[in-house]
Give the backbone structure.
Amino acid sequence: MRLRTYTALTMPEAMELVRRDMGTDAIIISTRIDDDDHLCWVSAAIEEDDPDFIEGLAPEAEPQMDPDTRRQFLRQVLTAHGLPAPVLEQLLRDTDLVSEADPALAMAAAIDLGITFRPIDVAAQDKPLLLAGIPGAGKTITAAKLCAHAHFAGRSVFVASTDTKRAGGIEQLQAFTRILGLDLVTAESPDALAGYRDAIERADIAIIDTAGVNPFDPDDMAALQRFAEAVDGEILLVMAAGADAMESADTAQAFADIGARRMVISCLDLTRRLGGILAAALIGRIAIANVSVNPQVADGLSRINPVSLAHLIVPDD
């Protein structure tokens, strides 16, 4: 799967860029018009040939299906995405509740029943965002994308990092904030971070990059929670797409247990199997905020909804 985000002055122009670059088979993942600069953003995806992915399903993916055929088809699809049996069966039961013959739309209805979508609004975010996750999940690039979006929207940004021990942890984020003309604050302890509460309150939005943690280590998680409590912040899980489904579910549950209520899905352009996303959201009971469809900071984070997620999961004929 190849994903890209396009921007233009008008929505028709943005759609034309998608058509020129990706062709008429592109799936529109999300669209939005920025409230501040009025630029139009379109995120789109296109399936690339992979004979090993969901082998043999295409002939069955007819636009109209009877309920039994649709159920059998969706079972094969969800199995190919690596869904564990409990989550797979739950989604199938939910698709049985709708009469929609199109399997992608039936899947969208099932996703809508079980998963909440709560995108980040930089204009309305009233608590500091602490980006958290396992090492290598994409927290720093997500922090940079949020900083860039807020900055270009004309918002004042407080940005900090507690990742002071990892080699290069500060330098990576500092390279982005320097380009944006933002000062990067470092805090080695919760008390040090709490010392910036006045600056945090003066800013329109506060973004705090944290060190990677082991979600199954009580000491790591307690330390992260203390950082959040020091500034009354929101723990925002950053999770890379493509991980093992049950591992993703356990990780999401561990972060939910310390107060995380939303997650950003990173590396969506690097995976074709999305069972981890579904398992994390359904078992971990954690909402999907946004997705990152490429590593370009200027492209920001994209919004996603039940229909666009379903179209990523269910293959076209």
Residues 2-46 form one domain. The first helix runs from residue 11 to 22.
